[in-house]
Amino acid sequence: MVKVAIIGATGYTAAESILILLRHEQTQITYLTALPEECGHIAEIFPALKGRLDLPVEPVDLNKLSKTADVALCCLPHKVSMQFVPQLLSAGVKVVDFSADYRIHDAALYEQVYQVEHTDKENLSRAVFGLPELFRQRITGADLVANPGCYPTAASLALAPLVKENLIDPADIVVNAVSGVSGAGRKATLPFHFPEMNENLFAYAVGTHRHMPEIEQIVTDFTQTPVQVLFQPHVAGMDRGILESIYCRPTAETSPEKLMQLFKSFYADEPFIRILHEPPKTKNVSYTNFCAIFPTVAKGKIVVFSAIDNLIKGAAGQAVQNMNLICQFPETMGLL
């Protein structure tokens, strides 16, 4: 049994991770940590866990963690994870990090996007980007995996086959995305207060969202073709889910049938990719680790629709998928 610690155990992604690990055949949750003001019994923080997990959430003690865990799921915000990861790695604990701290290879770009100095450049250079469908060989056996952002997961999986086959202009890509409110985290803020958010839909971070360079990096790394993406996120009055509509300029005439054949072939052996014959719905991927994709042609453009559960394939499920690869378990364990 692999022993797993969760750092930042009181957030939504941590709760989802716990639920997945409780049905995982080869893991045992041994340690939960959070800020002192957020500590308590996990079943009091998340009543759905009553009778299922009997553990306290404690202030972080890295010495104790290193003695009780083989793998840590680091469910911390950006700027915070890199304060803990070096010590975890030094103690021999493998890490799947949910933050952005190890996603962007270029430290200067990270500092520009997140407006903070990167304090762990040594481990940044060894971190592996954790999108299994594109980087599985790199992830297997790694000791530090940067779990992707939710928006980049849906976008990159939709774009990779097209860029790889040179079917689209890599400098003319528009990603229009809508996310559920849980993407903003568990801490209450005015824009996401129920009377503000219910029956509402709005755009934010116009042309400046932090996930834009991440999408560009992923697709470029996988295809070796530099891409430029205009990424525009929105938030909708729903709990969970992401739907992305992606518009691309084709490099040559194509057809919906050829695109369907390409995507089915490209993802033929991927257990968590579903290629559909109609646009996906967020409800059909909720509480799953699936990414549902529908490619087609409209008015001379290639249009791809991509849907995931932002808390599962966009965070906790993908983290467990990465953990399975790190530990060389069957990749689907705990997720199907």
User: What is the strand tally?
Assistant: 15
Mean pLDDT: 97
Strand content: 25-35%
CATH class of the largest domain: Alpha Beta
Short structural summary:
The chain has helices spanning 12-22, 42-45, 62-68, 85-90, 107-114, 121-124, 132-139, 150-164, 194-197, 211-223, 256-266, 312-327; strands spanning 2-7, 27-34, 40-41, 56-59, 71-74, 94-97, 128-129, 144-146, 168-179, 201-203, 229-236, 242-250, 273-275, 291-298, 301-308. The protein has 336 residues and is α/β, with parallel strands linked by helices. The longest helix has 16 residues, at 312-327.
How would you characterize the overall build of this protein?
By secondary structure, the chain is of the alpha/beta class. The chain has two domains: 2-126, NAD(P)-binding Rossmann-like Domain (Rossmann fold, 3-Layer(aba) Sandwich), CATH 3.40.50; 151-310, Dihydrodipicolinate Reductase, domain 2 (2-Layer Sandwich), CATH 3.30.360. It is 32% helix and 25% strand. α8 runs parallel beside α10 (211-223). It is globular, with a radius of gyration of 19 Å. 47% of the residues are buried.
Entry keywords:
single chain; about 325 residues; alpha/beta; Rossmann fold; Dihydrodipicolinate Reductase, domain 2; 2 domains; eight-stranded mixed β-sheet; seven-stranded mixed β-sheet; globular
Topology:
Layout: E1 2-7, H1 12-22, E2 27-34, E3 40-41, H2 42-45, E4 56-59, H3 62-68, E5 71-74, H4 85-90, E6 94-97, H5 107-114, H6 121-124, E7 128-129, H7 132-139, E8 144-146, H8 150-164, E9 168-179, H9 194-197, E10 201-203, H10 211-223, E11 229-236, E12 242-250, H11 256-266, E13 273-275, E14 291-298, E15 301-308, H12 312-327
Parallel strand pairs: 1-2, 1-5, 2-4, 5-6, 6-8, 7-8, 9-11, 13-14
Antiparallel strand pairs: 3-4, 9-12, 10-11, 12-15, 14-15
